[in-house]
Amino acid sequence: MTVVTLGVHIVDVLARPVESIPAGQDTHLLEQIRVTAAGAAAGTAVDLAALGVPVASVGAIGDDELGDLLVMIMERRGVDVSGIVRRTGEQTAASILPIRPDGGRPSFHVPGANLGLSAADVDRERILGARIVHLGGMDVTWGLYDPGFLALLDEARAAGTIVTMDLLSNMPDLMQGVRTFLGHVDYLLPNEEQALMMSGASGAEEAATALLAEGPSAVLVTLGAEGSLIASKEGITRVPALDVPVVDTTGCGDAYCAGFIAGLADGLDVIGAARLGTALAARVAGGLGSDAGLTGARELRVIPEPPDPA
């Protein structure tokens, strides 16, 4: 298996455009309502599958109807879901997202079974057999703050596996704890607010540089409409966003991660992989939900030709 995404799995119910919440029992008619697989592991997995990258997802969901729906959606998109565990009596994590006309996305969220994901749920051989492991939402999967799990990551990296990490929340109390992982990952992909909270810095470049010093090979900070910046030993590089009409920003970070991971799998350098992430995020921003605009997404990949043996 080329990629394993490990961490947060959520069912998103999205509606647009929502200008206000109706008073009392009133009804507002909308243009669109969708249900998608989301979360920093599940959303990234679906996007990777759309890019044609073989991917398995690992996480915890409930034994409820929402869990049935999430598994069905992911399987239909081509994701291997055999590593997802189901918790008896627990709810599958879910969000209700009323999308504003400008693409903003307030949310109502139930964390559900994600909070109980533990190192015991992770198949050791699946991790060691992956070319790339993506940690999605380690800030809320506290059961993975486990010395044995960190040692497994180190063992996989020593054997050549690349480890990437994205976050889920923007909660200050959780940002400091997740720094535990920085010495055990190759690429960190936070958004600007997360990077500032983790580092205590006052600006994105300062934050990326500070986090780079804690272990990763590169830190890629997403900046919304301003694109992203990459901090590595070569310095700071900025990758501009594409100018596209924005319908919904849900899942753009997951799409950026998926494109970046696919680029690494294809042999692109960090900047080239970040550009692929930028292109995929732009597609997702043009529709409703974390899997919007993915039809034909694999055409975005440009796989380098192997070197001439001569």
From TrEMBL:
Domain Carbohydrate kinase PfkB: 14-290
Domain of life of the source: Bacteria
InterPro entries: PfkB_dom, Ribo/fructo_kinase, Ribokinase-like
Gene3D superfamilies assigned: 3.40.1190.20
Residues making up the signal peptide according to the UniProt record: none
Keywords: Kinase, Transferase
Key word Transferase present: yes
GO MF terms held by the record: kinase activity
Record's protein name: PfkB family carbohydrate kinase
Source organism of the structure: Streptosporangium longisporum
